[in-house]
Amino acid sequence: MESRKPTNAAARLHQILATAQSLNSAGTYQQLPIAFGLRDKADTVALLRALVQAAETLDEIGTLVKKIPAANHELFLRGFDRLKAGLAAAASNTDFNQWKTNYLRPEQIQTLEYCADLLSRHYLEDEIAPADLQKILEHVAEVYESVMASGLDAELKAVILESLERIRQSVHDYRMKGVYGLKEALASATGELVLHREEVTQAANSDQKPEVDRVFHLLEYLDKITAIATRGKEMFAPLLPYYPYLLAKGVEIVDKLKHV
User: Fold this and answer.
1) Which pLDDT belongs to residue 233?
2) Are 7 and 125 in contact (CB under 8 A)?
């Protein structure tokens, strides 16, 4: 059987840090934007956000590893604290070569390779095509504009717009966090619909039904894409025709989305 290269968050972060290892000279503000693949290499805010996101990703990797009963958690996560310290230090625009020497030696990031292999055997994840990610962004933009201009209840509108923004951000975060960031955004959006089920039901029974339909169909599409990437079952789409049933069973759905 052909061995497949892991595509999970640990593998993604390892690739970013390995790229950083290959760079030299200047400061962290000049070199790390290259490693993170930032479009605007002079955007300090974007770099600081990427550093925070990388630290958060380490925490998320640690959480997933600790869910695997047979794994030696301490062994797999050894060095994570040092990596997080390095990410924090990079925010001060220190000398890049010195920063690499202190925080980014090969043995310090090798643990991410081990984690990537471990996670690939317990959390299936296939790559999502760039075209599919772009389609999600386009779909989000269309729904956002439509909801913004709609006559939906103000509170419900704000909740939906916030959920859409979270989905949009999860797509932008995909390069580092992978599909499980998208699944978290889907679970969060579904949870918000559950919490505001009365407003959603009222809107679905009014002239605002097309807006509700647009939101649900976006979540259906996101559910389909993430299910394919994790080789799992779609959780949202089968219930789409049944708004009341979806909302009534929402808590159960959210829990399944988070743990699939």
Assistant:
1) 62
2) yes
